[in-house]
Every structure is written in structure tokens, then in C-alpha cells.
Design brief:
Phage protein, NikA-like, mainly alpha, 6 helices, coiled coil, 143 residues
Length: 143
């Protein structure tokens, strides 16, 4: 005799319209579920984070509107804060100085294996320009 706890699974069939099925399918896909699993979990009262599905064109329109609002805010503040030529020149000088450090670091990374486990020291030792750039950077940072 079969055990009472191991009864055969029961099936419930539901009929959905095409649009209802598409909605269930989309909601399930968002959660990496199939429509049957999503429906079962929902019917059993599991809390599945609700997701609002809206057409792509509607979302694109919303993003374009947000973009316009941000541009308006940016333009509203334009000219409010004056930067002196001296401050601008100082910032520009700092920018190019740091850009040089970034380029030196990028040149050094050519000798580092992709998994960052190995550095080709022989290649680095032969790169005199890179070694000179690194020495200059070290002097700058120590002063």
C-alpha cells in the first residue's frame, strides 16, 4: 500500500487569454521562472517582488523627459558660478599631471598578466622610458 504522505501530485488547469498569458510569461521571465512555476509560487502565497511592466517606448519617453529635465537644471546653473582664469589654468595643469600618471600606470599594466597574478619583470626591466616615468612619479609623490 502506498504511504499516505506520498500521494500523486495534483494538477490544476487554468485558462488565460493571450494577453493574460503574455503578462504572466513576462513576469515569470523577469524572475528567471517559467510561467507554470511563477503561477504556482504566486498561488501559494509566496511573495514575489512585484514588477511593473511597461512598453519600451513608454520607458524611452520617460528617460528622454528625465534627460530634458536634467539638461534644464544644468543650464539653469550655467553662468552662476564664475571660475577665474587662474583657477581654470590650475585645474587644467592638475588634470594633465594626473593624466600623465594614468598613462604611466596603463603602460605598466602591459606587463601584468590579465589575472593580475604575474608581472613580466623582464619586459618591465627593458622598458627604460616606463622606468623613468615611474621614477619621476615616485619623486613627485614623495615631495
Amino acid at each position: 500500500m502506498p504511504d499516505q504522505n506520498h500521494k500523486k501530485a495534483k494538477t490544476i488547469n487554468i485558462n488565460l487569454t493571450e494577453s493574460e498569458y503574455e503578462k504572466v510569461k513576462q513576469l515569470a521571465e523577469i524572475r528567471d521562472l517559467n510561467p507554470t512555476a511563477y503561477t504556482r509560487l504566486t498561488a501559494l502565497g509566496n511573495r514575489i517582488k512585484p514588477t511593473v511592466i511597461q512598453p519600451e517606448s513608454e520607458r524611452i519617453n520617460e528617460l528622454e523627459k528625465e534627460n530634458q529635465e536634467l539638461k534644464m537644471k544644468l543650464m539653469a546653473g550655467h553662468g552662476e558660478y564664475e571660475v577665474t582664469r587662474e583657477d581654470f589654468d590650475n585645474l587644467e595643469e592638475q588634470y594633465y599631471q594626473y593624466a600623465g600618471y594614468v598613462n604611466t600606470f596603463k603602460d605598466f599594466l602591459k606587463y601584468v598578466q590579465n589575472d593580475a597574478e604575474y608581472i613580466n619583470l623582464n619586459g618591465y626591466k627593458n622598458d627604460e622610458k616606463l622606468k623613468e616615468d615611474i621614477r619621476d612619479a615616485i619623486k613627485e609623490f614623495n615631495s
